[in-house]
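Budget justification note: compute hours in this period were largely spent on complex prediction jobs such as the one shown. Inputs:
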Amino acid sequence: MKVVLQNLTKIFPNRKKGGDDVVAVNDFSFEIPDGKLVGLLGPSGCGKSTSLYMICGLQKPTSGKIFFGDIDVTALEPESRGVGLVFQNYALYPHMTVKQNILYPLQNLKGSDKMTKEQMLERAVEVAKIVQIDELLERKPHELSGGQQQRVAIARALAKMPRVLLLDEPLSNLDARLRLQTREEIRRIQRKTGITTVFVTHDQEEAMSISDMIVVMKKGVVQQIGAPQAVYDSPANLFVAKFLGTPPINVFEGEVKGGKVWIGEDAVADAEGIADRKVFVGIRPEGFILDPNGPLHCDLRAVEVMGRDVSVVSTNANCTAEQVRSIIDADQRKNMNGDVVRFAVKPNKIFIFDKENEERIVLPGQDKIAEAIEG
Amino acid sequence: MVESKQQWKAWVYLLPCLVLLAIFTVWPIINTVRMAFLENYSGLKEAGGETFRFGVANFTKVLEYKKFLQCLKTTMLLCVITVPVSTFLALLISVALNSIKFLQKPLQTIFFLPYVTNSIAIGMVFAAMFNIVGSFYGTENEIVVTAGIVNNVIEFFGGTRVNWINYGSTYLANMTVMVIYIVWNALPFKILILLSGLQSINKQYYDAAKVDGSSKSRIFWRITVPLLGPMLAYVIITGFIGGFKEYTSIVGIFGASMGPAHDAKRLNTMVGFIYDALASNQQGRASAAAIILFGIILVVTLINLRVSNKKVHY
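Corresponding output:
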């Protein structure tokens, strides 16, 4: 089931008189291809959860339309949309056993969807097996670990075979190890069931690692949509570039002058055909190459050995952050001596952004900015 | 941990409270048990130098006493009827209150008013409402004029007036008035507890139920009621305990005669029986009745707890 969002807008009126209304989601248009796993990504308050709740039906859009397949579901109540929702804190009914929790949505089915008791039980056991909790059916939610509760919540959402599965910050209540494991699990379950899935997260790593597509949002406005790698390799603006990647991208104040990109006195890249202007220069940590004759000069502060790589911490007067963090292959380390390190920059790891609107300016030789890929 | 050397200080600080508790709570309890087991005990007679034999005669006499059994019956009936009715009504009202935004606070205040109103005053108002004659106690020769609002309403809709509480009224009519009064009086506390319980239920359960396609009545019975379980158990248990101690409500409506003029004491309760025994200097009998009442409340509470432990589980 493909999901189409058309100019979706949600405005929360301000409660105080004379205050400004809050635009939680602004003109969100997007087509989620059938059977894909899509991550809505952004900092808190960017409207990603509101978007999810609008797809679910718990919140009504102020304007815009939502289609499931070719059917307009904008006016439908959540129960008639055929969606499964997993809440951030799971919202398992505490007084019911795992089995009763999974059975509950099935018992609510009406009309032709109505199931016999045996069918319901069969379905419950089936979905419990998919999420591997078939051993725990008689337990109460409080007798389960966080990860197990999470799976029960997914099983409950899957039980009625939803057309769309929605997950709200599904991993945020889990510890680091479990988070890693559970995100693989979500990927596996999604692949196995083939249900179009949308999940919300503020963790870029989480979104990048399991999504077919990511949607990066900021203050209610979609910044960029695309495959995780494409968005990472070709961010549309400074916000997206900064939001994706750990360690984060290094941002310098610089300018384009005479067909070169300058950071201070150092010309770090070619910019032929681009008019002179002030820019932000972003360089991914993995985009630095130690080179005694490299153009970029930095003052060496520390070298952190991480085994496979070496993390070089240095400073540069033009950097917007306190330090420049670069990740270098361990065998390049010999190229370092003295207080000053010099770097060459990989041409596909440097991005320049207009200083005024922070939009990306594509340098010669770079790919165009990634747009939504086709399913 | 307080060092043992310092412990005497703690005891000193606790002393005023302990002394008061000992004088006004612990000793009376012990004394009640003592009086209950001294046959035909009376404080006056003891002061006159009389001694009493130890035994269970007070208990056997109380249990053989017809009036006591009548009191027990009235008390039990009132309890068994009013506690479920008031709990269910309170549940409906609090759910309704919780689901509205407009006027929620003013309505909450209105529903809470009976709680802060003197029950004798409420009783007098109820007595006036259910009255049928110009005076509070009617006699056979009195000219009957319909005066109570309730009967006015009944007659307005073409019904015949009912003698609710006056001379010649039936036990059934009396009990109906009592049930209405007690239920109305018990509502505010229950609504308060249940409403705060409702407000502490995580809204996400309702969102989840909505996504799961639950109907309103299903949400009520499968989600709201179970999640309110602890609060419901609390109001039911305290409701029964309060119900067994019913007394002022009846005084409020019928006055000290505890019944209509032609059959005084008809609506007497357990507590009323104890007061009567005390008033006639039969402290032995009163103590025995008090201990029986305590026993009944204990048993009912234990049953309540056992049932709620089975039902309230999360």
